Amino acid sequence: MTDQAAGPTPPQGRALPPYLHAMAAELTDERVAGADEDVHFTEHVATEVITALTIPGDLVLDPFAGFGTTLAVAHRLGRRALGVELLPERVAAIHERAPDATVIEGDARGLHQLLSAADTGPVALCLTSPPYMTANAHPHNPLTAYQTLGAHYNTYLGDLTNIAGSIHDLLRPGGHLVLNVANIRHQGHTTTLAWDVARVVSRAIPFVAETVICWDTLPHDLTGDYLLTFRRDG
Q1: pLDDT tier at 61, thresholds 50, 70, 90
Q2: What burial class does residue 102 get, using C-beta atoms within 10 Å of its C-beta: 0-12 exposed, 13-18 middle, 19+ buried?
Q3: How confident is the model at residue 36 (pLDDT cuts 50, 70, 90)?
Q4: Percentage of the chain with pLDDT > 90?
Q5: Fewest CB within a 10 Å sphere: which of 92, 163, 196, 217?
Q6: Where are the domains of the chain?
């Protein structure tokens, strides 16, 4: 008998494969006007995640909606798409790319104020790629779209943990958070961003597994690219 609170189980099961392949040419072809080289989340990756962890009609959330890849793919696959994006010009771009998605202009650090489960309904999947920060030579705050100074790596990780806590409250029991995060080599120093994010976010939502994204050519400055999967208990 189906658990109505948790929702029906996707026929593909509730797990991602240990490896996914990605093509640099695909990334170049999909990059929208105004997107820089640091945007490296492809529609193929989004399709694999959404297909594996949701079914048509489920609600998919992206709190760092960017240029709308998650939202566009979710709608194309028959899911309901909900996003939060800080920059108004990107909100406008998402409306053009995914006109049937719901997009809220706002700061993901205030996610608990922007969204509530009572208003949105339970989220089946949160799929996002947060803006990256290196532990060295990075004065701008990525969570303000790199528009303010005074950034600190540990503060950034703490903010991501708090955002994950808000996502936890929006997820249905058994719902998933999937973060696309990479380790980065910058000015001779490697930031183990993926491992650091996995460690801190697991304080808010239990960590399940990692998926290695295998690029034919790794995007600029990345030493390894990953999908980190977390699942709300229930």
Answers
A1: very high
A2: middle
A3: low
A4: 71
A5: 217
A6: 19-231
d(CA 67, CA 65): 6
- 134 Cβ contact list (under 8 Å, min separation 6): 153, 184, 186, 189, 191, 193
Say which CATH superfamily domain 19-231 falls into.
Answer: Vaccinia Virus protein VP39 (3.40.50.150)
Q: How many helices (H) and strands (E) does the chain have?
A: 8, 9
3-state secondary structure of 113: helix
Given a contact cutoff of 8 angstroms between Cβ atoms, the answer to whether 162 and 109 are in contact is yes
Q: Let me know: does 225 contact 212? Beta carbons within 8 Å.
A: yes
The two three-digit tokens of residue 160, written as one number: 């991501």
Tokens representing 28 are: 């170049």
Whose tokens are 């080289």? That residue is 37
More confident site: 214 or 4: 214
Burial class of residue 206 in the structure, from the number of CB atoms within 10 Å of its CB (0-12 exposed, 13-18 middle, 19+ buried): middle
Strands 80-85 and 171-186: unpaired
Q: Find out whether 132 and 142 touch, Cβ atoms under 8 Å.
A: yes
Compute the residue count for the chain: 234
